[in-house]
Amino acid sequence: MLIYKETNDNYILGIWKIEESADTLLSLLDKDTSEDFRRIYTSENRLLEKAATKLLLNELIGSSVRILYKPNGKPYLENDSRNISISHTKGYAAVILSGCERSGIDIEYISDRVKRIQSRFISAKEYIDPDNEINHLLLHWSAKETMYKALSREGVVLNEDFIIEKFIPSDSGIIAAKETFSEKQLCFNIQYFISDDYVLTYTV
C-alpha cells in the first residue's frame, strides 16, 4: 500500500510498503500489464517489486504510464519527459519523478549486513559516527547509490569516485556530497530520512 507521498514544484515522491501477495498486486493492474508481468518475471520477489512499483507510479501520477528501460538499465517513462528513478529494498518500493536531469532515489532496509561490505563504499576520508554506525553506513551507501542513479554512469567505484562530507545522522536532513571522476566534480545535496525500518535518500 502507498504509505508516503510528497508532491511539490520540483518532484513527486512515493513509497509503497509491499504487504500484499503477488496475486493481489497483479489484480490491481490492468489485464495486459498483469499478464506481461507474469510472463516476464518468474521470481516471486521480482514480480512483487515490479507490480508494486507500477502501482506506486499509477498512484503518484493518477494514470497508467509504461516504464521502459534504456540499454544501461536506466528507467524512463513512455510519452512522458519527466525523469524517473526507482529503488527497492526488503518489503518496500520507492519512486521519484522530476523534471531535473540528475535525479535519483534509493531506499535501504535497516540491517547490520551493511557492515560486511563497508570497504566497498567507504573511503578513509569519510567519517562514520561510532555511536550510530549502522544508520550512518546505510546513509553513505544509499546516498552513493542515489548519486550513481542520478548520473547514470557505468564503471563508478563507490569508495573512490563519490565523497560524502562529514555529517552526524539525525532523523532527517541533507547530505553534502560530490563526484570526483569528472573535471566538473559535481556537487549534490542529498535529502534523507530514517524510519524504523529503512533509510531513504534522494536528490533532484
UniProtKB/TrEMBL annotation:
Record carries keyword Lyase: no
InterPro entries associated with the record: 4-PPantetheinyl_Trfase_dom, 4-PPantetheinyl_Trfase_dom_sf
Domain called 4'-phosphopantetheinyl transferase: residue spans: 104-202
Keywords, sorted A to Z: Transferase
Origin superkingdom: Bacteria
One example GO MF annotation: holo-[acyl-carrier-protein] synthase activity
Official protein name in the record: Phosphopantetheinyl transferase
Organism, as annotated: Dysgonomonas macrotermitis
